[in-house]
Write a structure and sequence with these properties.
Blueprint: E1 10-12, E2 36-38, E3 62-64, E4 88-90, E5 114-116, E6 140-142, E7 154-155, E8 168-170, E9 179-181, E10 194-196, E11 220-222, E12 246-248, E13 350-352, E14 376-378, E15 401-403, H1 407-412
Parallel strand pairs: 1-2, 3-4, 5-6, 7-9, 8-10, 11-12, 13-14, 14-15
């Protein structure tokens, strides 16, 4: 009705008769200068759709919707999305018992510091993707019980994306809820110090990519998920979790994992990582998987099946405290990139890579660069005929012995 009234600053709707209205979709859409709306006698009893109702009302500072009757409401998608100046919103009287869509409901409410939706009934909701996305100032979030029916699946990807002012988050009420997706769920929650998770029902989840990306202040995570049988993408899952000291993954089912690139990237305070039970028969990407895990002194990856892996660049780069690695079980017949694979892992002393086949590798640049304490290398099956080996041993000046029949490698060895 008032959609794209970009110059409208104030509205008094007290005389409006809306008793028969069933949709208010985009009613105030992109009223970017709107600061005040009077709803005194607004009748919303029959309204089923409020999608994008206040979308991009970027000058609205407060909204009191306590007089709204929402017993028929089914769609709240993007309802307050990109209300970037909104500081106060009262939804305490909202009846959400019939709502199924809450995707991006508060997305981009970047000035909102407090939000209480503890009264919400979520029994019919199955899409909450990006619901609090980019709520950058949100410090206090009161959530309801997630009492969604057992036949429903919750789409929770991007749910708390860029909520980088939240310090405490308790989602234990998600315990019985079957999740469908959790990609980037807590992405860039930089101030989060406490995340209380239940044993999530993740059987149908296929991607956890970036789930805890740059949760920089979290020190502990116990991921006792019920089941991860369909999970295949964990790239950047813990990337930038600088403070993480404890991580439990022992109950992970990894049989379908394909992409683990940057999974533990820059987890610089992790001192141990138990991956003994990882089965990786379908794994194809290990790029930067352990990059910057510079507190790890021991890493057991002997259970890994790498026969389908094509990417191993930077896999163990900047693992400063590792003194040894057993990679004899690695099958590298399909790998095409190994650049910087061990670069800057300067406490490695001996490396036996005799099982490595590199006849498909096109890039081995800087593979052992800055391995200052490396003394011996077994590269007996290396074939560099298809690949570049620029700066392969740069600054690795302590190497005394390299076992290799490859002429190119023998020519560049220090």
């Amino acid at each position: 009705m008032f959609s794209n009234c970009v110059s409208l600053e104030s509205l008094n709707l007290s005389s409006f008769n809306t008793a028969k209205i069933i949709t208010m979709e985009k009613m105030f859409y992109y009223c970017r200068k709107l600061q005040n709306i009077v709803f005194d006698s607004f009748n919303t009893e029959n309204v089923q759709d409020m999608q994008s109702m206040f979308y991009k009302c970027t000058n609205l500072i407060s909204l009191d919707l306590t007089k709204f009757i929402t017993s028929s409401l089914g769609n709240m998608m993007e309802m307050f999305s990109v209300c970037s100046s909104l500081q106060y919103i009262n939804l305490s009287s909202f009846d959400t018992s019939k709502v199924t869509y809450m995707e991006s409901t508060f997305n981009g409410c970047s000035s909102l510091k407090e939000l209480d939706i503890s009264n919400f009934d979520l029994s019919k909701v199955f899409v909450m993707t990006s619901i609090f996305r980019n709520c950058n100032s949100l410090e206090n979030l009161q959530l309801p019980v997630f009492n969604i029916g057992s036949t429903s699946f919750l789409h929770a990807d991007f749910m708390f994306y860029e909520c980088n002012s939240l310090k405490l988050l308790n989602i234990t009420s998600l315990y019985t809820l079957p999740l469908h997706s959790t990609e980037k769920m807590f992405y860039n929650n930089r101030k989060l110090t406490s995340l209380i998770l239940p044993k999530l029902n993740t059987y149908w989840v296929s991607s956890m990519s970036g789930m805890f990306y740059h949760c920089e202040l979290l020190t502990s995570l116990d991921l006792s998920f019920k089941d991860t049988s369909w999970l295949d993408d964990t790239k950047e899952m813990f990337k930038g979790c600088y403070s993480l000291q404890f991580l439990r993954l022992s109950e992970f089912s990894t049989t379908k994992f394909k992409d683990m690139s940057s999974m533990f990237y820059d987890c610089r305070n992790l001192t141990s990582l138990d991956l003994r039970y990882f089965e990786t028969d379908l794994l194809t990407n290990m790029d930067s998987m352990f990059y910057g895990c510079n507190s790890l002194s021991y890493l057991n990856v002997q259970s890994f099946n790498t026969k389908l892996v094509t990417k191993m660049s930077y896999t163990f780069s900047n693992c400063w405290n590792l003194t040894s690695l057993n990679l004899l079980s690695f099958d590298t017949n399909n790998v095409i990139n190994m650049e910087h694979m061990f670069d800057n892992s300067f406490n490695l002393v001996n490396l036996n890579l005799s099982s490595f086949s590199t006849n498909q590798v096109t890039n081995m640049n800087n593979m052992f660069a800055n391995c200052y304490n490396l003394i011996s290398l077994d590269l007996s099956n290396f074939d560099s005929s298809k690949g570049r080996i620029d700066n392969m041993f740069t600054n690795s000046t302590k190497i005394e012995k390299i076992v290799s029949g490859d002429e190119k490698i023998c020519e560049v060895k220090p």
